[in-house]
């Protein structure tokens, strides 16, 4: 008989409360949140599920919720044959899932000690932590401009677009201005479609990213957060280095922070 998930010193037992499907391979889900669970926007949780063989598998997922929300939200891609996502995709509201008691991650905008403009560069589900960050007031008060760049393979993968446009509209003169740049890499835009075409790295090199943002990406004023595909992050590190930018370290201020998803 399959062992049941149970809470422990390490983890609490939560349940799925809602699921929203964006495309056949992309979805967001919410779980219950223990009242004592604390996290900062930009951090991730570790979730646990059992495989059909009865092995407990843990994976990291960025929290999409604002830190004050009653539930915890995550944005996930289904990895065909993936040990965790193959189980996750079968869950329905009411099903149990383990939540590690400790939130993790140091990709936090408050780690930038200076800078005027915050650039958030995401591939695929790397968008998640930036939604959490934008759902809170802090960055809107702290920076002059916020630039969110989201790169996906196909345009139907621009999840959270309506909420982002709403956040952009809700801006007032006391707050930062949000510039939303969406780029898709495997399909050319048709007619009036508002998104860009090409990888973030290519758009930075050919000047399109800065042109569309209406801002220069430079060490003096720009702070950068990178999240998602590790190859994008490696290439971006080199491009930022060429612009005189360094990573933020525990004891050394810098201009960028990064989180690899695999
Ligand atoms: C700090 C951190 C935060 C993360 N946050 C998220 C998140 O918010 N949403 C999310 O979907 N995943 C996230 N991941 C990845 C997640 O932890 C799992 O690795 C992923 O869900 C696949 O697990 P799996 O066991 O099904 O597949 P595995 O058998 O572990 O297969 C892993 C392979 O799947 C591919 N892959 C894994 N994650 C992704 C992804 N997000 N997008 C595209 N390809 C991927 C890679 O090729 C990788 O080698 C995060 C990872 C880390 C380290
Ligand atoms: N369920 C399904 O039917 C299905 C279908 C396809 C894929 N998948 C799975 O989904 C995963 C891929 O997910 P995804 O598309 O969200 O992630 P992804 O492959 O990381 O692609 C997301 C974005 O990142 C870009 N990118 C990739 N490498 C880059 C680099 N070195 N520099 C700059 N940009 C880069 C991609 O551009 P490019 O397009 O140019 O690479 C794309 O725009 C795979 O694990 C695959 O197994 C599932």
Structural notes for this entry:
By secondary structure, the protein is α/β, with parallel strands linked by helices. The protein has two domains: 90 residues, Translation factors (Elongation Factor Tu (Ef-tu), domain 3, Beta Barrel); 152 residues, Nucleotide-binding domain of ferredoxin-NADP reductase (FNR) module (Rossmann fold, 3-Layer(aba) Sandwich), CATH 3.40.50.80. Helices cover 19% and strands 32% of the residues. It is built from seven helices and twelve strands. The strands form two sheets. A six-stranded antiparallel sheet has the order 4-3-6-1-2-5. Strands 10-9-8-7-11-12 form a six-stranded parallel sheet, sandwiched between helices. The model has no long low-confidence stretch (mean pLDDT 96). Bound molecules: flavin-adenine dinucleotide and NADP nicotinamide-adenine-dinucleotide phosphate. Flavin-adenine dinucleotide binds next to strand 4 and strand 5.
Ligand kinds: flavin-adenine dinucleotide, NADP nicotinamide-adenine-dinucleotide phosphate
Named CATH topology of the largest domain: Rossmann fold
Task: List unreliable stretches of 5+ residues.
Answer: none
Total strands: 12
Straight-line distance between termini: 33 Å
CATH class of the largest domain: Alpha Beta
Q: Helix content range of the residues, please?
A: 10-25%
Q: Report on the biggest sheet.
A: 6 strands, antiparallel
**What fraction strand?**
25-35%
Q: Compute the number of helices.
A: 7
Report strand order across the widest sheet: 4-3-6-1-2-5
Q: What's the Cα radius of gyration?
A: 19 Å
Q: Write down the overall mean pLDDT.
A: 96
Overall morphology = globular
CATH architecture of the largest domain, by name, is 3-Layer(aba) Sandwich
């Amino acid at each position: 008989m399959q062992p049941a998930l149970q809470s422990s010193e390490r983890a609490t037992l939560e349940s799925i409360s809602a699921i929203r499907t964006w495309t056949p391979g992309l979805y967001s889900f919410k779980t219950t949140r223990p009242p004592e669970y604390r996290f900062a926007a930009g951090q991730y949780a570790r979730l646990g599920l059992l495989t059909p063989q009865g092995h407990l598998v843990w994976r990291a997922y960025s929290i999409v919720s604002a830190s004050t929300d009653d539930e915890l939200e995550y944005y996930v891609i289904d990895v065909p044959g993936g040990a965790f996502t193959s189980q996750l995709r079968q869950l329905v509201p009411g099903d149990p899932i383990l939540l590690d008691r400790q939130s993790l991650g140091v990709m936090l905008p408050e780690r930038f000690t200076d800078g005027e403009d915050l650039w958030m560069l995401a591939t695929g589900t790397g968008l998640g932590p930036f939604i959490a960050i934008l759902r809170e007031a802090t960055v809107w008060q702290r920076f002059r401009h916020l630039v969110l760049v989201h790169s996906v393979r196909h345009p139907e993968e621009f999840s959270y677009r309506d909420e982002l446009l709403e956040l952009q509209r809700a801006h007032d003169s006391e707050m930062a201005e949000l510039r939303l740049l969406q780029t898709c890499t495997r399909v050319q835009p048709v007619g009036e479609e508002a998104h860009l075409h090409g990888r973030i790295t290519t758009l930075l090199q050919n000047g399109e990213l800065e042109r569309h943002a209406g801002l220069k990406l430079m060490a003096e004023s720009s702070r950068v957060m990178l999240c998602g595909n590790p190859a994008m992050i490696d290439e971006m590190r080199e491009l930022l280095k060429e612009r005189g930018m360094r990573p933020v370290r525990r004891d050394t201020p810098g201009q960028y922070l990064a989180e690899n998803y695999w």
